Amino acid sequence: MTRRPVLEFWFDFASTYAYLSAMRIEPLAEAAGVDVRYRPFLLGPIFQAQGWNTSPFNLYPAKGRYMWRDVAREAERRGLPFRRPDPFPQNGLAATRVALSGADKPWCGAFVRAVFHAEFGEGRSIEEPSAVAGLAGSVGLDPDQTMKAASAEPNKMRLRAITEEARTKGVFGAPTFFAEDGEMFWGDDRLERALAWAAGEDA
Amino acid sequence: MTRRPVLEFWFDFASTYAYLSAMRIEPLAEAAGVDVRYRPFLLGPIFQAQGWNTSPFNLYPAKGRYMWRDVAREAERRGLPFRRPDPFPQNGLAATRVALSGADKPWCGAFVRAVFHAEFGEGRSIEEPSAVAGLAGSVGLDPDQTMKAASAEPNKMRLRAITEEARTKGVFGAPTFFAEDGEMFWGDDRLERALAWAAGEDA
Asked: Where in the sequence is the active site (chains A, B) (predicted)?
């Protein structure tokens, strides 16, 4: 058996368009014969480096108004629930640490979908560690062990390193997809093409 | 015969993604049974109002690098030529005035495509009035009469008014599409959905 090609899915839990991608990437990747590699990171430091202290959707109100309408419209078209969390953006640090601690584990996709569903499907807060522990429990993880592993120093350092890696690779938003040859695709609208590229159809 | 639905196509000649849309909107609209209404305007004043003195693709280098790669990749996939003009963004004032003066004329689409093709298909300058006059001539217009009508005071005022209308309607980038019920779609990636909405398929 030859190894299946891999597509990296870089995302921040505050991203509405990453929600749209997270809820469909696994079946699409399966159909394309591609494996998904979850790459959770924090957009905050990248935004701060370009002078933004919050989401560009808050800084630029016209763009923000459109984004909420566009995501609601797309979610409806796809049969996905959508509800805006308050505040936006949510601080996803605790959830991101858990996702990163499980990035190579079979449960990662289920946890990522549980977080995004709570945040944007139900408009619930994902900020408190207790909320994140509850979501970990909801996908069959041991909440205490999971939170402990997530907040262990090596995992915190790993999150700082992956966020720096995102910046170095030219990531400026989420979702961003990388094929193994380094080809980069930005945005939920490019997910199909990223998978086709990873599968070698466009190479 | 019932009147066909209309989709407004708001664009700035400096927009690479508006180039992608301009080169395909008419056959797609025809297939959808929708009429295209050309709405040329200037993004510059809208960008300036949010503190940008040039294209965001220049202000945010990581985003800019990705954009050039993405547009080149999309153009290749569609069999469209693509070449980056220097400088970018081009000053499209003269071309925009001509397009606006013909916004309700049968030649508007051909002129818009001629400008975009010169600018992004061949990487030529569209800044000088002589270049714009040449492009007008290339689609069968009288260059002198066209340039004179374009720079007449009522047409200049109309350009200021439509640019202000864009801002009022919440336009923050190009291309932007509006259906007759006011539904807004931003980006070449939303062209198909904008046409479906205008045609009543998603209403």
From this structure: 15 (nucleophile)
Domain hosting residue A180, numbered range: 6-198
A78-118 pLDDT tens trace: 999 999 999 999 999 999 999 999 999 999 999 999 999 99
Q: Give which of A17, A65, A71, A73 to mutate to test B binding, by max B Cβ within 10 Å.
A: A73
Whether B170 maps to a domain, the answer reads yes
Within a domain: residue A203? no
Nearest Cα of chain A lies from the Cα of B73 at a distance, in angstroms, of: 10
Classify A201 as helix, strand or coil. coil
Report yes or no on A81 lying in a domain: yes
The CATH number of whichever domain residue B44 belongs to comes to 3.40.30.10
As for the ipTM of the complex, it is 0.94
Q: Which residue's structure tokens are 């989420």? A: A174
The helix/strand/coil state of B99 is: helix
The verdict on residue A138 lying in a domain is: yes
- Please report how many Cα atoms fall inside a 13 Å half-sphere around the Cα of residue B42, on the Cβ side: 22
- Taking an 8 Å cut-off on Cβ atoms, the answer to whether B77 and A202 are in contact is yes
pLDDT tier at A203, thresholds 50, 70, 90 = very low
In chain B, the N- to C-terminal Cα span, in Å, equals 21
